[in-house]
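Practice record 12: protein with protoporphyrin IX containing FE.
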Amino acid sequence: MGIVVGWCWYKKEMKSRKENKVGVPKGNLGWPLVGETIDFIACGYTSKPVSFMEKRRSLYGKVFKTHLLGTPIIVSTDADVNKVVLQNHGNTFIPAYPKSIRELLGEHSILQINGNLQKRLHALIGGFLRSPQFKSRITTDVENSVNLSLCSWKKHKHLIYVQRETQKITFEVLVKVLMSVCPGEDLNSLKREFEEFIKGLICLPINFPGTRLYKSLKAKERLLKIVGRIVKERKLATLENKQEDGARAPKDVVDVLLQHSGDSNEAQGLSVDFITGNVIEMMIPGEETVPMAMTLAVKYLSDCPVALQKLREENMELKKQKIESCGNYSWIDYMSLSFTQNVISETLRMANIINGVWRKALKDVEIKGVLIPKEWCVLTSFTSIHMDEENYSNPYEFDPWRWNCKAGIAANNSISFTPFGGGQRLCPGLDLSRLELSIFLHRLVTTYRWVSEKDEIVHFPTVKMKRKLPIRVTSISSL
Ligand code: HEM
């Protein structure tokens, strides 16, 4: 027994000496099995979740090691290190999600795959979402969804729950962008099954009847049936159209992927199953992020009347111009509202809806004198960068004016502003998200005044409002 314990100690000591020599970051791996997870989760439940990182950063430096959710992990709060990890030259870093997420994502999900197929898929989707044709069409679609929802608020005598309302708006837009499903039976079933599916993303990875993971996997099977039917129908229609009048411009992501489809055996082609799975998985990053950004914008503006006043003035001016010229709004009209864009950037900086990304190193990598050994996970903390005094003065203050001198940086992402990630996996929904937020804020501040009830932001496991942000609205025209 003594020999075994001695041997284990010797091995551990040698490993730790080797790691220290080549520069594995300092840090504490905490307790056996749980590591430092309890402190990590406890900080997540406070109003300052980044305190977990700040405490260790002051002890060990900007990059440190710890042990979270069953994994030894290197946490980076250094913008340069994050940039290298995100750029991922040589495909060294692969996404590393917790087990429950991996179980729910398909093997070929864009969120999990690496290398050429991910790059190809990313380029196809990003190219479509950035295209002028798409932007002009989706502007009208988003306006319609926002108007429909906001008009219904007039009839509400009671409280409006912003988080719930914005979820309805953005889900409708998302399924339109992905597969052109309009309000109706399919939309309702998709919403119901998707909600059941994502409940399992953060849960114990135990799969047998009755468990959360099991129920979510069943919901995914039902989703695969609905989306699979839509993709098959569209494939047939695409083939017929091709024969009649050649290929037409794609109207949604299913179209884009179908134009690159083939048999499952074909090396370059994307099969119907592949497209179906990926369309469902693309709903994950798009579904909760935009409504949360909308909700938090309303929250921050409620707490900052000066910014709300300035936002309203800018948007009222545009509304007046449009009424006088009887013109439609374009994507550029919304993007040209400079203060509105500042409000959106500031919201994204403070909200940290995606607080960082997890990767795993496929080989030893040295960045800025720090070694990330093969097989280790690395967490690039975006929150730490966004809430760092070195990058933003008074980081806990909602100050949209701070972006006046950083306008281009905000729109394009910089190493100290990465709400949409960066490098190879920079969010392809970036422009669409900014458009949805701009339209929502424009219609909201030019139609209503509101008073919000007391509510709190919860940061764990994902960012949410404790009470879904209840507000009482008064129509501006009736004031
Ligand atoms: C405020 C809203 C949003 C935020 C903050 C956000 C944030 C992010 C971040 C940080 C990543 C990088 C993940 C990584 O590196 O592993 C990402 C990836 C992604 N996002 Fe978004 N996102 C938003 C909206 C959307 C929307 C509306 C869509 C869909 C239309 C979307 C689709 C995607 C996809 C498909 C990826 C994966 C890209 C890849 O791995 O190649 N996102 N998003």
